[in-house]
């Protein structure tokens, strides 16, 4: 009985180690929901290039993004490209990760306010992933991640995915709370 209890206590730590290790698997791609930005959606006067009209990271979100980047670097995990939605909160998250140059990818933009673009954007993102060489880190929104990976994420959560013939499979999940 003691061994059983010990195994149960160790399982959460083992799962976390395996999730970090998933980033080292061939074909692994990191796809992250932007760090903590309190609220839901964006205000009615939202303008893509005007951060004052958007929901943005708060101090905890900025600290969370920096901590995630630091945790990745500490483990020697590097990316060739960091692709980001054009929303201010995703771009700021991507910059604060400090994992490399950030490249805007419009297909990663949120479709929360207009689900009619969901299928097109998801197909464009999957095609972008298939065509882009190197190790990739994506920073996007919960709705986009759900469409690609089939599951939701918390703010700042990183899913490790691999492309399949019909989309993507989830290999692991990493979350550093704000």
Automatic annotation (TrEMBL):
- Highest rank taxon of the organism: Bacteria
Q: What is this protein called?
A: Histidine phosphatase family protein
Task: Report the leader peptide range.
Answer: 1-17
Q: Which UniProt keywords apply?
A: Signal
The UniProt entry, under CDD domains, shows:
HP
InterPro entries this protein is in? His_Pase_superF_clade-1 (IPR013078), His_PPase_superfam (IPR029033)
The record, for SUPFAM superfamilies, names: Phosphoglycerate mutase-like
**Which species does the entry assign this protein to?**
Sulfitobacter sediminis
């Amino acid at each position: 009985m003691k061994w059983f209890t010990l195994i149960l206590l160790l399982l959460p730590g083992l799962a976390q180690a395996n999730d970090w290790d998933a980033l080292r698997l061939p074909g692994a791609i990191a796809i992250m929901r932007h760090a903590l930005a309190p609220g839901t959606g964006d205000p009615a006067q939202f303008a893509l290039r005007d951060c004052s009209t958007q929901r943005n990271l708060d101090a905890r979100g900025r600290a969370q993004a920096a901590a995630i980047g630091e945790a990745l670097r500490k483990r020697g995990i590097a990316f060739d490209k960091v692709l980001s939605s054009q929303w201010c909160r995703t771009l700021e998250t991507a910059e604060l990760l400090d994992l490399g140059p950030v490249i805007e990818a419009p297909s990663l933009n949120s479709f929360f306010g207009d689900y009619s673009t969901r299928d097109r954007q998801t197909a464009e993102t999957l095609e972008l992933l298939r065509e882009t060489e190197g190790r990739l880190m994506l920073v996007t929104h919960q709705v986009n991640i759900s469409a690609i990976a089939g599951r939701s994420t918390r703010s700042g959560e990183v899913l490790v995915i691999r492309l399949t013939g019909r989309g993507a499979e989830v290999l692991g999940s990493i979350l550093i709370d704000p």
